[in-house]
Amino acid sequence: MAEISVADSRRCNYFFLYDGSKVKGEGDSTRAGICYFYPEETTVDKQELLCGQLAGVSRCISELSSSPVRLLRLRRSKFAIRMKDDFLWSLGCPVEIPDVSICDFLDRLINLFCFYNGPIRKSYQIYSQEDLAVRWAQYLSHLQGGSTELHHIFSCLSTIDTTHIDPLLLLKAALILQACQRCPPVLAGCILYRGRVVSTQMTPDLTVKVMVHEMETYHQDQDHHFLQDQRHDGLSSSGSSGSITSSSPVTFTTVYLTAPELHNLLSAPVASRSQSTQSTPKEVNRARKIRQLSRTLSDTPPSDPSEPGSTHNAPLALHCPSSLHPATRDELLFSPIPSSHTPGPLSFSPIKGAPGLSGLSLSNGKLSPDVEGGFRGGSHNKKGVSGEAGVVRGWPTENDDFQQHSNGHNGGAVELAALTSEALLLREQNSPEHGGQTTGNDGDQEGFGETEGHRGKAQCVDTGDVPASPSENPSDASLIPMALYQHRVRGLVLTLLVENHFHSDTAATEEVYHSSLASLNGLEAHLSTMAPAGAAPMGPYTFAHYDCIQKTITTNLSGTPGGAQERSFVRATSLLHSHFCNTEALQEVIVRSAGAAVYGSRTVAQETYFLQQGGTLRNSGIPNHQDSAFSLPTKARHRLLKHGVNLF
Amino acid sequence: MTSKSSLLKVILLGDGGVGKSSLMNRYVTNKFDTHLFHTIGVEFLNKELEVDGHTVTLQIWDTAGQERFRSLRTPFYRGSDCCLLTFSVDDNQSFLNLSNWKKEFAYYADVKEPEKFPFVVLGNKLDVPERQVSGEDARQWCRENGGHPYFETSAKDSTNVAAAFEEAVRRVLAQEDRGEHLIPTDTVDLHRKPRSGPSSCC
Fold it and tell me: Which positions fall inside the CCZ1/INTU/HSP4 first Longin domain (chain A) (predicted)?
């Protein structure tokens, strides 16, 4: 294993999905369990070696520590691990990549797969291994491709360069999205231009997922293999440009949302988030939308007969519609609406939900990580950059929770299931703050999990709390099928998350299409005439500003691999980001080499990194008040103001 | 009948709120939305139609009327084949501003001979009972400013909308015919938009 090479600069050296259920007995060959292996040209023997060893080690450690494994650290590479039911995902990368980034990368990859293909077990029952291999490869290359090293470190969104476009155009984009939401089945949308976000109503995580399909269609479009949607041929007659081909610019794709994602979309105060609204019709629409959604969800069949371990239960089955639209039927077949053991809709009460939630926030919430963080922060600082405490951690409370989840359709899973259907509505009415809390907790758990993840560096094993976040590892039961409506106007794409029945509602699709077409044409015309960003004039300093909420980055670093100074800036940023993630109490750091010093500062909402170039560094190795590094914070504050970054 | 229709760019100009977007939407999608927001910058829609045996694709550019959007809209004046100057019959100021719009267009579109450029004047909101601009005043302005055709329209109840756009197409085609006699076929006219297909000449 030690000879695993870290040859190139790819973030991902290895990725595999291993299905432990296929390899139970002594005689079963390891290769039977390998669902996907990247790089695909790896010899089967080597695949077996890696999968077998890592699966074995992960299983062993998780059983010993009764806590799932998050990260395995070898001498020259490390592997982020996810285990769920019998499946094990592993992503290998060079050690230089921060633990947070690699764990986040793997989560995103898995979530992406589930977003487009539904629950993992089912997708492998429905599609061939070869087909899904193509998908994995596509998602891998999407997540690795395109943007700069800094984007990878922070796992952030590629946004359009707002410094070069008129802010009125951003307003225009936001208004287009709002206008689309006047149609009730439209939940939220985003507008992308040449693979970058212009405006989005979705969370950053959801936006990233949606972007994959955009890239896909973009490339297909360029190759003139545009996906055709027969029903929409009529629409394109009033097509968007004079030179457009006869193919339709509109596509539909089935996607799967986790219950928290859906809940978030429905409870998000869209009106207050946007810059200008006509409030009254909006309110009416919203109310209507919620009603309609609850109806839609309870209309769908409660369980899928092919789901192992699921039981049909009568009360829910009563809600099963007698006449489903034919177009949605096959999707529903595939539809993983919760296989719940809970008797009926009434028991999905918020009161029942509450203990679970508060339980989660106790074991994962702000309190303990803060204390932990403060504690660790102290010790960390003393130990400096390479604090390697040999710690193997397990979180018993957490772990119990996880057991429930992984038991499949009992316990925890039921609670997830309860998030759908009427529960959504009830929670909406009774405790609006609940929704925010749920997702808030997810965030915390995730952050916390990762914190734990790279905390312990016990020889080669890290364990942390994987499990609790339902949004992170979508339980099979919690994925709700939705549709993605995409309308392309050359480099510009309007993407809308819509309810599944939208596709078959010709009047609604035409309304959305026609009401947005002119504005999309115009926006595209504006954006295409904007001067290309070009390399921003490099000042005597380099900075990177990361917005943790919107997951966007602002930097004056050019996208191309730069000089030594730029590379050391990126390295320092990567290092500091990792430390900030590890150490919640850490707020300001200066790291320095003989030739350069980088200042890092963070709050809950942002992280900022600053390198002053030129000038002689006066440092003698002994603390000295004339040391130029000490003036970095002031310089950073001063310089970055004109970039709209306020460090006060 | 030509196999490939030519693309004609017409542009709607006029004060904010006179109904430019509504006119475009009424003509292309036959819909009327009372809740339209201000247009920001420019928007456009294509429509294929046949006028006097010529099939053309009309590209209708709708612009923002508000002064603050000026810098966004003016770059898109270039290449226009016809300009539809729009005012609202219930708003005298929008009528008085027509000359300013004409000037702004001529300046940014860089029209060589503004007096020969096809303009069409539209008095919209005919459905509104309280008129401030009489038809006679409007016609007089059109006569005095180069003999532009004048249409009184209502995007709301669809009055005269199609007729106005068709007249715009006729004006452009007539202009082209005249141009074709003057320009030798082996030269390239740099000031005119290249047509996408073979010209549907008579």
Answer: 13-118
DSSP string covering A184-200, please? Answer: TTEEEEEEEETTEEEEE
Interface probe for A, chosen from B6, B22, B30, B40 (most Cβ of A below 10 Å), is B40
Which pair of tokens denotes residue A381?
């600082």
Residue whose token pair is 């982020």: A80
Nearby residues of B111 by Cβ (< 8 Å), 6 or more positions away: B105, B117
3 state SS of A285: helix
Residue with tokens 């299983």: A59
Q: Does A179 touch chain B (CB under 8 A)?
A: yes
Percent of chain A surpassing pLDDT 90: 30
User: What pLDDT score was predicted for residue A174?
Assistant: 95
Residue from A605, A602, A587, A581 nearest A448 by CA: A581
DSSP string, A10-76: -S-SEEEEEEGGG--STT--GGGGEEEEESTTS-HHHHHHHHHHHHHHHHHHHHHTTS-EEEEE-SS
SS3 of A308, please? coil
- As a whole number of angstroms, the distance between CA B128 and CA A2 comes to 82
Q: By three-state DSSP, how is residue A328 classified?
A: helix
Q: For B196, which of A242, A518, A522 is closest by C-beta distance?
A: A242
What does the alpha-carbon distance between residue B61 and residue B10 come to, in Å, rounded to a whole number? 6
Asked if the Cβ–Cβ distance from B42 to A169 is below 8 Å, we say no
Tokens of A98: 């921060």
pLDDT at residue B105 tops 90: yes
Of A572, A172, A68, A610, the residue nearest B37 (C-alpha): A172
Whole-complex ipTM:
0.86
Strand spans (E) along A95-145: none
In this complex, is the C-beta atom of A371 within 8 Å of any C-beta atom belonging to chain B? no
